[in-house]
Amino acid sequence: MQEESQYIKGRGAQKNVDNRFFSQSYEMLDDFLNYCEAEGDKPDDNRTHYLEVFPKTIVNRVESPDVGMEYSMNAYQGCEHGCIYCFARNSHEYWGYSAGLDFERKIMVKKNAPALLEEKLKSKNWKAQTIVMSGNTDCYQPAEKQFKITRECLQVFLKYRHPVAIITKNALISRDMDIISELAKDNLIGVNVSITSLNEKTRQLLEPRTATIKKRLETVKLLSDNGVPVNVMLAPIIPGINSHEILPLAKAAADAGAVSIVHTVVRLNGAIGEIFTD
């Protein structure tokens, strides 16, 4: 466990854990970095690195029976929000990285996502069904401010009058209200805003680089006032940490204009349990 003086500010995970697909251990690298630090070198500047990747497709069919969506798309892999409980951390191992700090600091950017999406929607075999943006990582994470891939994808959805849903915990979505409100006029969009706690200290620990609770509730109200149906996700519920907040969270969501709420209980599968415990 990290001492308070060694705490990496702005990050949820505090270390890299072993990738289950690798035979070598990250512990050797951590020991080397600690040695460098002891010698006076700065082994880690905590910067986020954006890596462009080139997928051949962008729309994914969701096969899992316990996920309430049929199709999803992700403009980014990895997420700088750094939510310590995030189920998507495990997917970073498929890219050859750790589910720990790597998940927050090595972000893969799919700049060709809008072109791939348009290609999919124009396909003769495609039958329109709601595509969810952020089935895995947040489409409005900090990278979006720079790359604007989510905005370009929304423009494609508007062009073809195609149904879309969004999952986010970032107030950056308000930037795209011009497109979102146009989609809402034809009932083509729904937004899911994740709010885990009403306590800022809890939020900062669990979700260090997300929008503040105040900003998220203001976003719910902004969307609702513009005719966009908003569902608030009380997710995840963590016994002993935010389980006592369920009813206050529900009331805050309703007061802000949400039409519904859903919840999930935290699930610390794969590498997430070790990261969360640390």
* H/E element sequence: HEEEEHEHEHHEHEHHEHEH
Spans of at least 5 consecutive residues whose pLDDT stays below 50 are none
Rg, Cα atoms, Å: 19 Å
Strand order of the largest sheet: 2-3-6-7-8-9-10
Helical proportion, percent range: 25-40%
Average pLDDT rating: 91
- Mass-distribution shape: globular
Structural class: alpha/beta
Number of strands: 10
Strand count, sense and closure of the main sheet?
7 strands, mixed
Counting DSSP H or I runs of 4 or more residues, the number of helices is: 10
How far apart the termini lie comes to 5 Å
Strand content: 15-25%
What does this structure look like?
The chain is an alpha/beta fold. Helices cover 32% and strands 16% of the residues. Strands 2-3-6-7-8-9-10 form a 7-stranded mixed β-sheet. A 3-stranded mixed β-sheet has the order 1-5-4. The radius of gyration is 19 Å and the shape is globular. The termini are close together.
